[in-house]
Amino acid sequence: MNPMKSFRSLASAAVSAALVVSAPLALGTAAPAAAQAQSDLDSAVTALRAISTMRADFVQSDTRGKQVRGVLTLKRPGKIRFQYEKGVPILIVSDGSALTFVDYSVRQVQRWPIKNSPLGALLDPNRDVAKFGRLVPTPSPNVVSIEVRDKRHPEYGVITLVFVRKPGAPGGLELSSWASLDSQNARTVISLSNQEYGLAVADNAFRFNDPRQTGRR
Questions:
Q1: What residues contact residue 72 under an 8 Å CB cut-off, 6+ apart?
Q2: What is the pLDDT of residues 74-85, one digit of tens each?
Q3: Are 164 and 142 spatial neighbours (Cβ–Cβ below 8 Å)?
Q4: CATH number for the domain including 101?
Q5: pTM of the model
Q6: Domain limits at 8?
Q7: Nearest-angstrom CA–CA distance, 26 and 119
Q8: How remote is the C-alpha of 100 from its chain's centroid?
Q9: Is-contact 81 92, C-beta < 8 A?
Q10: pLDDT, tens only, 118-144
């Protein structure tokens, strides 16, 4: 496969994941007698809402096993940046209102309004949206997994967020990875490591050099 095509495929899949990570998480009602499940759902929401800023290394993998690395920077409300490793001319960044996909190799810029994302997961806990999340059983009591989908819009795909219980993390749960499955069943996994919280992050970290023109946006 052409390397640039592979990178674009990876990054495009990451956009769907980033849309979810850049929007609010809303959770469904637990099944009857599932008090622990509801508790885990509530804990996950608390953990997400407790993150003001975060920086982490990430590894992004697709269904073919292709991997790219980079650094994720997040700041509430609504700001996120996927800075890919050297040699990958792609950037995904949100300024708080729209998610932007920049491909410097072809000077292309695409934008999606975050507020139109049907799914939810991290930066705007105050929005009241439909209930899209459910707890997914895991083999370990130290792992909490939440599947997020909008059944009314299957074309939006599915995101599964995975948390690990960690006393030092906000809310006691650390977001360790997420997997996105699009409507064509293409799966992308983003795994995080070296998470740091509460860092001072300037708003200009979520700007980008527009390849279509000179100057900076």
A1: 54, 55, 56, 57, 58, 80, 81, 82, 83, 190, 192
A2: 998 788 899 999
A3: yes
A4: 2.50.20.10
A5: 0.80
A6: 3-205
A7: 8
A8: 13
A9: yes
A10: 333 444 544 433 356 778 888 898 999
